[in-house]
Design goal:
It is a single chain. The protein contains eleven helices and four strands. The protein is of the alpha+beta class and about 220 residues long. The protein has two domains: about 1-75, Glutaredoxin (3-Layer(aba) Sandwich), CATH 3.40.30.10; about 85-215, Glutathione S-transferase Yfyf (Class Pi), Chain A, domain 2. It starts with a strand and ends with a helix. The relative contact order is 0.14.
Length: about 220
């Protein structure tokens, strides 16, 4: 059986877990505690010398990048093809994925860094404002796209949706922190600012197995 080493709340780990749930592929979870340095243990570094999460292990086969893990899991089941069914649809999926990974993800990390992981001695206001500006532009594009189709690349859920969802949830969480909320970034509430994105989030949350992927500590906040 597939083993997944992951960090709770990491968008990279979350997208892999959600892929497995959507595909109905079972896996054994191993939660990594970064505070304990488990990602830097000799055992883990032997599998991934970079010490990054997530990590997928299937027998002797090890995968260390989340997109590659998504592809590997997708190939394990015929249920709900996530990477297209022909040349055109596959190209569209990877086009959407590229936009998520290289545009939305970068902007999300710019917001997450000063809100969720910031130094207590630094004033993050300017960095947060700049991140908010970039994310408003990204979410506007996404909202327009989702006004034309139920999913990011058309009429069926794809890997682009799976990769995007954890980023959107991270944006909502980060924008809701006091240090960001007081700046009125124009990102939340989603249903008022970006209604099509908000409706898409509800469709994603209704997916079978979604609840099992939600970071437990996020529920407690």
């Amino acid at each position: 059986m597939i083993e997944l080493y992951y960090v709770s709340g990491s968008p990279y780990s979350w997208r892999v877990m959600l892929t497995a749930e959507v595909k109905g592929v079972p896996y054994t979870p191993h939660v990594l505690q970064l505070s304990k340095g488990e990602h830097r243990s000799p055992e883990f570094l032997k599998m991934n010398p970079r010490g990054r999460e997530p990590l997928l292990k299937d027998g002797d086969f090890v995968v260390t990048e989340s997109l590659a893990m998504m592809i590997y899991i997708d190939r394990q089941s015929d249920r709900t093809p996530l990477f297209g069914t022909d040349t055109t649809s596959t190209v569209r999926v990877f086009e959407g994925l590229s936009q998520v990974l290289f545009d939305c993800e970068k902007a999300t990390l710019l917001l997450a860094e000063p809100t969720l992981y910031r130094s207590p001695n630094a004033d993050p206001s300017e960095a947060i404002r700049k991140a908010g500006e970039k994310l408003r532009a990204e979410l506007k594009i996404m909202d327009e796209r989702l006004g034309e189709a139920p999913w990011l690349v058309g009429e069926a859920i794809s890997a682009a949706d799976i990769a995007a969802l954890p980023l959107i949830m991270t944006i909502v969480r980060a924008a809701g922190k006091d240090v960001a909320k007081d700046l009125d970034l124009g990102l939340i509430p989603l249903d008022a600012r970006f209604p099509n994105v908000a409706a898409w989030v509800k469709r994603m949350e209704a997916l079978p197995g979604y609840e099992r992927t939600v970071p437990p500590h996020w529920r407690e906040e």
